[in-house]
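Box 3.1 A note on notation
Throughout this textbook, protein chains are presented in two layers. The first layer is the amino acid sequence; the second is a token string describing backbone geometry. Keep the layers aligned when reading.
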Amino acid sequence: MESSTFYTDTSRQLQDHFDTRRLADLLERRSVSTVIDAQRRAFIAACDMFFLATVDSSGFPTVSYKGGDPGFVTLVDDTTLAFPSYDGNGMFLSMGNILANPHVGMLFVDFAEPNCLRVQGNASIRSDDPLLETYREAQLVVRVAVQAVFGNCARYVHRMRLEARSEHVPRAGRPTPVAGWKELESVRAHLPADDPARGDSRVSRGARPEPPST
């Protein structure tokens, strides 16, 4: 039997139970890579969203949606991706998880012409990354050192067409709309002091303590 560093022992147990080990080995040889080739680079560059999986210090996972305009995921080189962390709900679950455990998974999906791509790697976050100035209103930049990139069967992806991209994605030439939930009276007083939704901004972002970096 062929050895593999890509599959775990438990994956192998299920492959053997369902007699898919030969197929799994074929897919590993043909699809799994440690570098992002030109075709996959083009696919990622055209994506306006992806799903990010992270794991906390106790081993519990979470997954979050990340959206932007096409090209918001930067192909730094053929083994490195970068993307912005925009203003969210203040929980910082994904970013906090990365500080505790750098292992991440990224799933890119094309719903118009069903296609999927998975990326696994080690992530780091910085508030002073050189790319920060290229991402309007980003709080942090996440860089992912790719460990594995591979296609994912898209036969169960429902075909959908884009109606409109979110108006909340930061864009040049106009102010970014405030999230409606931030304007609730029960929420407003709990927002950061410099959040535009407060209407009484008193602290500049530059005066905030620097977040930890990895």
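The chain is about 20% helix and 25% strand. The domain at 29-152 is CATH 2.30.110.10 (Pnp Oxidase; Chain A).
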